[in-house]
Task: inverse folding
């Protein structure tokens, strides 16, 4: 049996983390290494999907639920506008292979240039 992911361990209260939102299928925590004033990770409770490609094929409704939660977080914490990032694969920057969306809000203007 594989070990629970770091995100599941936070959800279960085994290691500390700031829970920002929680519903029946999806939860959100604040990223430990924030890249913007709002930097949340939106995560499905299931670990079944490694990345957004698998998730979109396997459960598009769950992907839609993640995006709805991202928007709610942006509304609550960042005036409603946000950047949504999925890293897919180690060479693209993914380090946790339990699919998650980065939700960035109130991004410093200089960090938006060229992207
Ligand atoms: P990835 O690199 O897989 O796209 O994103 C993983 C994210 O998880 C990183 O932005 C990293 O800062 C965050 N992270 C890793 N370990 C922890 C942790 O223990 N607590 C929290 N809140 N975030 C974490």
Result:
């Amino acid at each position: 049996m594989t070990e629970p992911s770091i995100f599941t361990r936070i959800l279960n209260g085994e290691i500390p983390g700031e829970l920002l939102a929680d519903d029946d299928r999806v939860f959100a925590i604040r990223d430990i290494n924030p890249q913007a004033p709002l930097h949340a990770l939106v995560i499905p409770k299931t670990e079944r999907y490694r990345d957004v490609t698998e998730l979109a094929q396997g459960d598009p409704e769950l992907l839609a639920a993640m995006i709805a939660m991202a928007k709610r977080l942006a509304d609550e914490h960042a005036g409603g506008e946000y950047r949504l990032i999925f890293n897919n694969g180690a060479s693209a920057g993914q380090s946790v292979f339990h699919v998650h969306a980065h939700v960035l809000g109130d991004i410093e203007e200089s960090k938006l240039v060229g992207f």
Q: What stands out?
A: Helices lie at 6-11, 52-58, 60-77, 109-112. The beta strands are 19-22, 26-30, 38-44, 83-85, 101-105. Residues 6, 10, 17, 29-33, 41, 87, 93-96 surround guanosine-5'-monophosphate (CB under 6 Å). The mean pLDDT is 95.
